[in-house]
Amino acid sequence: MPIRSSSSAAYIQNSSTSTNGVPSTRPTSLTIHPSALFSILDHYLRRTDAQHRVIGTLLGTRTDSTVDVKSAFAVLHSETDEQVAVDMDYHRAMYDLCTRVRPNETIVGWYSTGSDLNTYSALIQNFYSQETAPNQAVHVALDTGTEEEKSAGVKAYVSSPVGIFPKPENCVFVPIPCELRFHEAERSGLDLLLSPTPSSNQTDLDVLASSLTDVQNMLNRVLAYVQSVLRGEVVGDKAVGRYLMDVLGTGVEEDGGWTAGLQDTLMVTYLANLVRSQAEVSARLALTTAA
Amino acid sequence: MAAPSMAAALAASLPAPQAAPTPAAPTYEAIPASMSKAIDIEAEIPLTCVQLDGIVITKILKHSREAFSTTAHGLLLGLDLDGILEVSNSFALPNHHNDDDEKATKSIARYQQSMLRSLKEVQGDDNVVGFYQATSLGAFFNQSLIDTQAIHQDRLRHGGVVIVHDISQTARGNASFRAFKLTPAFMDAYRRANFSTAGLISHRLTFASILEEIPLRVRTNALLSSYLNTLAIPSTSTFSDAHPGVATTSALPPSYSVLDIGNVGLTKNLEQVAEAIDNYRTEEGNVAYLSRQIAREKLRAETYVAKRKEENARRVAQGLNALPEEDVSRLFRIPPEPSRLESMLLLGQVDAYAKSLESIAGAGLVKMYAAKASSGV
Q1: In whole angstroms, what is the distance from residue A51 CA to residue A48 CA?
Q2: Residue A17 burial class via C-beta count within 10 angstroms: exposed 0-12, middle 13-18, buried 19 and up
Q3: pTM strictly above 0.90
Q4: Directed axis angle between helix A256-285 and helix B341-376, to 10°?
Q5: How many Cβ atoms sit within 10 Å of the Cβ of residue A120?
Q6: What is the pLDDT, as a whole number, of residue A220?
Q7: Does A231 contact B at CB distance below 8 Å?
Q8: Buried-most residue among A235, B149, B213, B239 (CB within 10 A)?
């Protein structure tokens, strides 16, 4: 699932043989973890007034044709009309710190907010390609959606030199598809952030109740649609009808296993209650004196 | 053990509490009353709430999941404002289990210093307000957490908070972050290092009164929430005859994993409960053994003193000098009362495991009845 509604990414296929027999290692797709995305947004919010866009380094892992971006950190840089400067010492120092916590993450590329690709981007891309040698550096351009006529989104590029004599200032950026990837276990954290009034003290039953309400609303909508089709108000879409029959027609055929499962669950609940009250009594008993 | 060394590392590296910044010209203006709530130099406004930024949540989630074999811990950065502690960033601390204590302490302190300096250069927050720890199945009472929190509470403004993140509960579908501080009663007992039975009674300490919970709130700044909502917008496919199951896609589809039936992790939880109870019994056995030893020594000392007195009385009756009363404490070394902190913590673990077991089983019960109702209709 691309991160922009209309993606102009080119889906590259690595050629299996090249002239010297070594398989090429150009990354052909990119996945980003939400924490990297949020770090970039946070850095953009904290930029000084003089900076129009901010850049930083991307860390992650790479497989044969995919690059996984796991985290990002900001890098000091200054950009004027004549020159651009990137603080390499800061970049190296931060990279050393990050590898101590996560030893399997390497530099995979760089990011910038604002999606203009100009000469400075080419120069910075060249610098980062030297850092990620022998692999290629990827460039992620993040649109924060705060400028007019630009909607929020993420675009990823790889570069290749262009021109008769390859110079560092010239390169062509090839867009590659990128998507948001995170582990299933982190899904509920993102749900928490997406909900309009996040409160972190919900019990399991609260979450269950809200999911069930959602499902109930969806079922009501489907029911209203089906009833209007039956009454003849709306022409039914055959594909939708068949899909609904497939999904809702299957039933659950468990019989004997259910009571056994119920008994087990009840016993576990009782045991847990017993252990808790025992622990409480024991704690109070410890407060009595021996004498 | 890494536990006391990490605590010592933090003690060595935390900045001393800073004095109020004085202006260059020596004219001290009084803080206007309207701003007195925001500018709180003496940390007088008590904390009522902890507010986590969205970025902290994703970072903690990522770190906890990646380091599930070792405990994930790290520091929180932020600012307290008007009674609300706003946590705006966090970073992870490396684990040192194999190094010896000296090197581990220094390297963690150096890591922290360089991280704070680097963050300051890119205009990030560099004010440490607490630390976070990931746990599984709800049991987070251990010695290192208490040591670290006690040090923080002495050194930081408002005392630091501990944010505990439960990995297993998040995997079940309910992202759980809780903020705690040590209660004043416990801090008092900790400072005096007096955890004998008498000490516990005087402070009325049970495992439930070690930590007090602070309400927690999650905040996403406007840019982040607009970005997330843009990502979650479902986009319809351009094919007019696409299968309805895949016609609309989005980068963040809604998930209903909480509705899955099947008690995942219940057996693991039961094992943990049983193991924790075993540990508690061992610890209590040790305490009982030490208490019996103390009682035996005391008895011997008392009988000695009694015999001495009797002998002295006899001698005085016979007219000889009384033998000197020897210092009993030098003859019989009475070992000190054992510290009951460890057994209290273990009891807290048992209770926490049982509580998460109860909540899993309770939710499972509701789901089973729901499934039966839907199929029996």
Answers
A1: 6
A2: exposed
A3: no
A4: 160
A5: 19
A6: 92
A7: no
A8: B149
* Residue A252 in contact with partner chain B when CB distance is under 8 A: yes
Q: What are phi and psi of A84, to 5 degrees?
A: -130, 140
- Which residues does chain B have within 8 Å of residue A207's beta carbon, measured at their own beta carbons? 173-174, 258
Structure tokens at A88: 């390499």
Q: Distance (Å, rounded) from C-alpha A229 to C-alpha A235?
A: 6
Residues B211, B162: Cα–Cα separation, whole Å: 10
Residue A24 zone, left/alpha/beta (φ > 0; ψ -120 to 50; rest): beta
Task: Say if CB B10 and CB B148 are below 8 A apart.
Answer: yes
Residue A100 contacts B, CB cutoff 8 Å = yes
CB atoms within 10 A of CB B80: 21
Q: CA separation (Å) from B230 to A4, A147, B159, B225, B257?
A: 9, 15, 38, 8, 22
Q: What is the pLDDT of residue B249?
A: 63
A268 CB within 8 Å of a chain B CB = yes
pLDDT at B2: 47
Whole-number Å distance between alpha carbons of B210 and B351: 13
Report yes or no: A200 and B177 within 8 Å, Cβ to Cβ: yes
* First and final C-alpha spacing in chain B: 59
| C-alpha span between B246 and B231 (Å, rounded) | 17
β-sheet with B84-92: strand ranges across: B211-214, B177-182, B161-166, B128-135, B73-81, B84-92, B49-53, B216-219
Q: Please identify every stretch of chain B with a pLDDT value under 50, giving residue numbers as ranges.
A: 1-3, 17-25, 98-99, 377
> Which residue in the set A93, A193, A203 is minimally distant from B54, CB to CB?
A193
- Min distance B145 CA to chain A CA atoms (Å): 20
| Cα gap B365→B355, rounded to integer Å | 15
Nearest to residue B73, comparing CAs of B163, B176, B183?
B163
Q: In degrees rounded to 5, what are phi and psi of residue B241? A: -110, 30
Res A289 pLDDT > 60:
no
Q: How many CB atoms lie within 10 A of CB B302?
A: 12
The alpha carbon of residue B276 and the mean position of all alpha carbons in its chain are separated, in whole angstroms, by 18
A207 to chain B, any CB pair closer than 8 A? The answer is yes
Whether the predicted pLDDT of A255 surpasses 70: no
**How far is C-alpha A250 from the geometric centre of its chain's CA atoms?**
33
Provide the token pair at A129: 């390609």
Cβ-based contacts of B106 with chain A (< 8 Å)? none
For B107, the closest chain A residue by CA position comes to A100
pLDDT at A35 over 80: yes
Of the CA atoms within 13 Å of residue A243, those in its CB half-sphere come to: 13
Subunit contact A204:B360, Cβ cutoff 8 A: yes
DSSP B259: G
CB contact under 8 A, A268 and B357: yes
The residues in A 5-44 lying below 8 A from B, measured between CB atoms, are 5, 33-35, 37-39, 41-44
Instruction: Give φ, ψ of A133 to 5 degrees.
Output: -55, 145
CB proximity A269 to B under 8 Å: yes
CB contacts under 8 A, A 103-142 vs B, are none
Dist. CA A130–CA A137, nearest whole Å: 8
Chain B residues in contact with A266 (beta carbon < 8 A): 365
Q: B74: which residues sit within 8 A by CB, 6+ positions away?
A: B60, B63, B90, B91, B92, B93, B131, B132
Cβ–Cβ below 8 Å for B115 and A97:
yes
pLDDT at residue A22 in the model: 41
